[in-house]
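Input.
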Amino acid sequence: MGKGGRVPSTPETMRSRLRRLVVPMGVAVLGVVVLGVGPSIAFVGSGSSAAAYDGARIVCRWSDPRLDEVSGIALSAVHAGIAWVHNDSGGGPYLYALDTSTCAVRARVRISNIGARDIEGIASGVDARGRHVLWVGDVGDNRDSWPSVRIHAVVEPASLRDQSVTAQTYRFTYRDGPLNAETVLAMPAAPRLWVVTKQLAQGGIYPLPEPPSTATVSKLSRISTTYGLVTDGAISPSGTKYVLRDYLWAYVFDGVPPGRQITRITLPVQPQGEAITWTADGRALLAAGERDSALWYVPLPTDARDSNTPTSSPGPTASGGDADPRPTSGSATWPVALIAGGAVLVVILVATRWLRR
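Output.
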């Protein structure tokens, strides 16, 4: 026994004390940073504000086992009360007509003339002939390695039944090299499209040619930077606003990309939020995700609602060039949270390995 009856400090007792201290503290900090237990902590001094999701509710839940990794959603322009959804990579070239009131799958559509490398986004719009189409983005590239990626135009089926269809394919790449993306934006009444890439610190907004061409592999140039880890987005029914989402928030912009940010909405907690679209009346958003069977209804504040006056004109726009739609006084908090959380996790893993040794 040491002086005062204390047990002398040995390497073993020191490791034991360190284990009891470091691991619980690390897990607690990781939970706060990554899961957003206190989202306002990350925004101290940022000058940016977020609207609460008061009134958000689950509309319905699906039980269809085929919907196991919902990664994209787009409201139908042909069938009232229907949203088209698709699964993540490995889900095959399938689109599902989801009833937005009951979450029942009303039809499964197989795109017979394409593969499904990593389908990550879907948008509702029109092609150069004015037909209502679903733009299906096979744009996922987790390793930033594909020489080109693809968007497929599928004429929206006139009837809701299980069927096979064909698609027109448009290939493209980025002037700044291969990039991962999960978001396709499309004007509702014009063949005008954008892809939003998904990087950790920030993403980029890339317009496709107007209209896109099947003759060549288009090279897209970035017109703007935006938030990191963007998992989906959609242009409003009138074409005058658009929304982007990450795992925690939805960002609503006025105009077409890059536009001007109006607000940031805190989204309901989802295991992996990957899909978002507008309601038909433009007053709310519908959100879904992987590893979850819930369709969420998220009301919008008045200034972020859509006027719901369909038009082919682009509406209000921001200045061109490499404008940044992020608020100048704010910050993209989720990437910061992920970096901080990752750093904490690394510290925990290193400390754990040292303790075991």
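The helical segments are 11-35, 333-356.
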